[in-house]
Amino acid sequence: MSRPVAFADTPWRDLASRLPSAPVVLTAFILGTALTWALVPDLLSGYSATVGLPGNQLKPPSLQHWLGTDELGRDLLARLIHGARYSLSGAVLAVGVGLVAGSAIGLVAGAAGGRTDTWLMRVVDVLLAVPTLLLSLAIIMILGFGHVQAALAVGVTAIASFARLMRSEVLTIWRSAYVEAAFGSGATFPKVLWRHVLPNALTSVLALAALQFGSAILQISTLGFLGYGAPPPTPEWGLLIAEGRSYMMIAWWLTLFPGLAVILVVMAANHLGHTLERTKA
Q1: Domains located in the chain, CATH noted
Q2: Is 256 exposed, middle or buried (0-12, 13-18, 19+ CB in 10 A)?
């Protein structure tokens, strides 16, 4: 009598091990949807994000308006779709500022050492000592209110995290055998930094960038909620939540759905960052 073939003994186990897990698929779906909203909002919505329809004020979710309408008769789904452009572009700008400036500071500090390292890290320590929200508000007071200004302010708050991580990676790589071999073969200091140190240090920094992307969306939404981000009638996600506060008792959907959009995208970006970290490890 033949022994039953277990699942572990079949090729299906190998196939199942190669398929992406459910969280990865869900993360890709959420981020892909948000990115599609940001790139082609007009193709995905048949309603205006800024002009309301007379007689459609505060309509609950229905087949005509899937997520309901706001106090001016504007379709909430259309405003969410168009708002993805502002929230995601602001996060990209913020992460870009933190990535470039912070990586440059950490690279120079770790490679130069001595007093240069000491002074640059003291600046980073000052940035870390100030609460993130307070620092971003102070920068906005200098730059002025607006979507771009809020993104730049959030980017400045991210510089310290990128700088510390880049410096630690550079210090580790700087003592490696291939860097010593590069110097022994006659390579100059800038060439070693550009060809050997920076490419190997960027792996961890890019994983942090994915984590900072979710954090940047949350911070930009917070600034928009407080009134320091994009002005009305811009459909920025944080501003949508703020505008729906006055109607929570009679129009719960105005705060629920924008809040869910922020939560889902932030969690998906954080999961992507943790996945990249585990892949590196």
Answers
A1: 24-47+58-280 (1.10.3720.10)
A2: middle
